[in-house]
Fold these 2 entries.
Entry 1:
Amino acid sequence: FFKPHNTDKSVLFFQTILEITVSVSFKHFYLNENHTDPAYSTFKIHKVIAPSDWEYDLNENLNFPEILKDLSCFNVSFNYWDYCQAWYNSFLIQSPKRKHTWLIFFYTTFYLSKSPYWFIPWWNYFGYVTEIFKLNIQKSFQIFKTNFIPSF
């Protein structure tokens, strides 16, 4: 579960930072339309912005687009350090039965070599661990990785 250091900065706040910077596309799937907690989610990584590629001073407070201002969590500004924290806090959602899972995709033009150094520890923390899969699942996963290209 997500425990915010600042209650004005929710999971939605952090997910939106990643979306408006065109870093990640999120998609949440629900068991049915009455559920408020997603059963599972996907995210496609488009890019990870390094400090040298951030278009503003790293400490400059930026505002969310006006279209989002009606929601209270978007009345708080953000900066590059919130962007970095968003990579950790955006994925800390959980269903009541603790069954929520994430499926990670990389956009076809994503280049790890252009990512900042802090992304490697992030990937090591959140990335997949195939060793926990049964052998037949590991083989299927290899086929999936080779053949599947997400279309969202």
Entry 2:
Amino acid sequence: MPPGPACAIGPASAWGKKTSVIDPSPTAAQHAFIALAPPDDAKKELAHALNPAYAAYPDLRWNRIEDWHITLAFLGELPVGAVQRLRSPLADLAAARPSLELALVGGGHFDERVLWSGIEGDLDRLHELAEAVRARVRDCGITFVTRPLRPHLTLARARRYDSASVPAAAACLDGFAGRPWQAERLHLVGSTVRGHSGPRRYRDIGAWPLVTDRNEMR
């Protein structure tokens, strides 16, 4: 499906508190995803609970706290022009969707390789938002692999030789229950890898406010 008139380029904004301007060549490509991000106080609360795991398992590939996010749609590698087309339709979508009350809770792992913290709160509306986001991306003529949404926040990954540290680190979060917070912005994020196997670094391509007062919803 060719991109419609709504798939136009709109203003960019910042991932967290960092401001970045992405103006690459039209032939470039980048990895992109659409996500929600916890506020700083929620991240600090979880980071404090992780202190024993940080000390006990330093060889895990820990994600930077400022990069923590809840992925709604992972788009993979796309031409930069295709990514830029998503700005305006995602802004329109955010303006018609309410903010969500969420909380970070406990910990777990995928296949002893990926450490995560769980998500509780407005999960029905979180799933609805993810479905709406994915539909909007497809409406712009962009194809991507669709996976079932499993709400979580990725914290770390194991190195190839290590199958024990991630489950043990997850146990450090047993009983953790963060305070509820509002997810108030929808983020379109680009990611890059430093070096051949270095950690990913994230930069906002755009971020748009969700509706905090339902009387203002379009």
